[in-house]
Automatic annotation (TrEMBL):
The chain holds residues 150 to 519 of 726 of the full protein. It comes from Metabacillus hrfriensis. Keywords: Initiation factor, Protein biosynthesis. It comes from the Bacteria. This is Translation initiation factor IF-2.
Length: 370
């Protein structure tokens, strides 16, 4: 259930906080502007102004029983890292994503129809790496603004012929705020005007000092266009993963985040989910953001139908009653009735309104699309 501070309530009633504080005082409540008010006080004050309070229940899957169930250490298994690519416009993010995907995905997967689902996995030295290829900055900031953290590693692409630019700096601050390790990809090394030393020099100002210069940031010179250096980049991702040892428990009901979603004419609501913990199966009852359903079918990044997927795997699902939003979190319920109840409550009108308010706060418009 939602709560409000004195200041927030004043805002909603279009009154001065001091006036609210005075009213509270008359009611025997000593309050400051940042104080959380209980339901009764909110109703009392609102009542004084003839305003009726409708209780809006804000669901957050992370608050559900079972979501945060601590996994025992012995239940945890190493999971693939989830990587996001960020950097200034035209520095080569899309080219790099395509290039990694083309060299790695199609090779061993003859017959697989690669399709765009907003994320893909590659296999390097028998180990998987998951790449999110949704709009980098937007995905990152929207998701973080909505409380979801999906990225384990950020690849910061900096064009060697252009150096550090405004969105490079932005990307660094996002990654730092999220405490996500950064690997610097010094791109466009094939160009005659490439000056990797300058990139290294400029990045020292932001605390990214290369190992060659005594720091601990990994720099990989490469050309997204020719493919030179991409293998090294992938190996460095695996190296960081080995150190970090990201783990999950495949033997529990799945939880994770929506990467993207849309309405498809034939298939209805189609959502790409990133499973972050547990295993997601066809037939599972699932609550996703403010919608719910049963997983009717799952398709992986190669366009293949799959029956179950484990941690760090992106998968496209159908079967939801409505279209969720990027950054929405999901949770599988072992009890279908509960999923339905929760789902229906969440889908209620009040929530939609709540959500419109939330949408205004999202930061995705601030950044360019990849
Ligand atoms: P984004 O805006 O960061 O996604 O950048 P793009 O991937 O769209 O690349 C911008 C431009 O730079 C395109 O014309 C690419 O072909 C070019 N480009 C990307 N990587 C390289 C590279 O390694 N070498 C050269 N010479 N050009 C590149
Ligand atoms: Mg792009």
């Amino acid at each position: 259930t939602g709560s409000l501070t004195v200041g927030e309530l004043a805002g909603k009633l279009h009154k001065e906080p001091s006036e609210i504080i005075k009213k509270l005082f008359m009611l025997g409540v000593m309050a400051t502007i940042n104080q959380d008010l209980d339901k009764d006080s909110i109703e009392l004050i609102a009542g004084e102004y003839g305003v009726e309070v409708e209780e809006v229940i804000v669901f957050d899957v992370t608050e559900f029983e079972g979501y945060a169930t601590e996994d025992q250490e012995d239940q945890l298994q190493i999971r693939p890292p989830v990587v996001t690519i960020m950097g200034h416009v035209d520095h080569g993010k899309t080219t790099l994503l395509d290039s990694i995907r083309n060299t790695k995905v199609t090779a061993g997967e003859a017959g697989g129809i690669t399709q765009h689902i907003g994320a893909y996995q590659v296999v390097v030295n028998n180990k998987k790496i998951t790449f999110l290829d949704t709009p980098g900055h937007a995905a990152f900031t929207t998701m973080r603004a909505r409380g979801a953290q999906v990225t384990d590693i950020t690849i910061l692409v900096v064009a060697a012929d252009d150096g550090v630019m405004p969105q490079t700096v932005e990307a660094i601050s996002h990654a730092k705020a999220a405490e996500v390790p950064i690997i610097v990809a010094v791109n466009k090394m094939d160009k005659e005007s490439a000056n990797p030393d300058r990139v290294m020099q400029e990045l020292t100002e932001y605390g990214l000092v290369s190992e060659a210069w005594g720091g601990d940031t990994i720099f990989v010179p490469l050309s997204a266009l020719s493919g030179d250096g991409i293998e090294e980049l992938l190996e460095m991702i695996l190296l960081v993963s080995e150190v970090e040892e990201w783990k999950a428990n495949p033997n529990r009901a799945a939880t994770g985040t929506v990467i993207e979603a849309q309405l498809d004419k034939g298939r209805g609501s189609v959502a790409t989910l990133l499973v972050q913990n547990g295993t997601l199966r066809v037939g599972d009852s699932i609550v996703v953001g403010n919608t719910f359903g049963r997983v009717r079918a799952m398709v992986n990044d190669l366009g293949r139908r799959v029956k179950e997927v484990g941690p760090s795997t992106p998968v496209e699902i159908t079967g939801l009653s409505d279209v969720p939003q990027a950054g929405d979190q999901f949770m599988v319920f072992t009890d279908e009735k509960k999923a339905r109840q929760v789902g229906e409550a969440r889908a209620s009108k009040q929530l939609d309104e709540q959500r419109k308010e939330g949408a205004k706060l999202s930061l995705d418009d601030l950044f360019e699309q990849i």
